[in-house]
Specification:
- It is a single chain.
- This protein is α+β, with helices and mostly antiparallel strands and 290 residues long.
- It has one domain (2-285): Jelly Rolls (Sandwich).
- Helices cover 28% and strands 20% of the residues.
Amino acid sequence: MIHTIKGDTWKGPFTEQQQKEALAALEEGQVLFFPSLSFSLKSQELALLSPHFADPRSKNIGYDSKQKKVGGAKGTQKEVIALGDMLGRYATEAQALVESILPYYKKTFEKARTSYRPMEIAGRRSSYRKDDTLLHVDSFPSSPVQGKRILRVFTNINPHGQKREWRLGEPFQKVVERFIPQCRKPLWGSSWLLEKLHITKSHRTLYDHYMLQMHDTMKADDYYQKTAQQIDFSFPSASTWIVYTDLTSHAAMVGQYALEQTFYLPVEGMAVAELSPLRILESFLGRSLV
């Protein structure tokens, strides 16, 4: 489930063979792991490594590259600007990495939200739906992706050498076979109403509905969480990894101080579209979902 790649610079270079193997591994649900790829903080940014900057009402500190806007943070104007500068720089580096190791996606992938996670995962209180220590596949309640892939780059920037510990679960096909039969069909008109009331930012397709239902049902099943096929893996400080979080069942158990960059990719932009959650779900349900 872990595909290790040597390299300590965000722009590579990577060989054609490395690129080919990375693309195949990623689309099959493996995690691309760069054990020596760190994100260098500027000296003044070290002061930002504190949970003090996290707004308790938000899950993470977020950054919108297009609007150059920071959300979910607290602090002085100077500190918030510094957070934005750090996250903007990380967004640029993460994009360079994806373009270098996955050039097949270069023309079709889209940069989305950047996040900074300064809080310790272990012991953090939240509803089960927001509890990232439970195995799940990603689906965003308010931001439907309408079949697009969710590709994420993570970097552990913990200054004390603390690892970021994950659990990686069973293949997506098995998750679908177990949980989709338990998922409710959407109520007639519910997607229109959710968008009309601005509960969702856009139209929630059948794909988004079933992915969200599966996300919630997985997290609510205590027996599954304890007994599902899974492995533990620790990402050291100063390492980076890339994963399709809509395909790879995962849970973050322990760790503090990480950066994350999300990208969206249309299914048509994949090398093997049949490996996408959209196509797997459509095959299982026997109908179009977008």
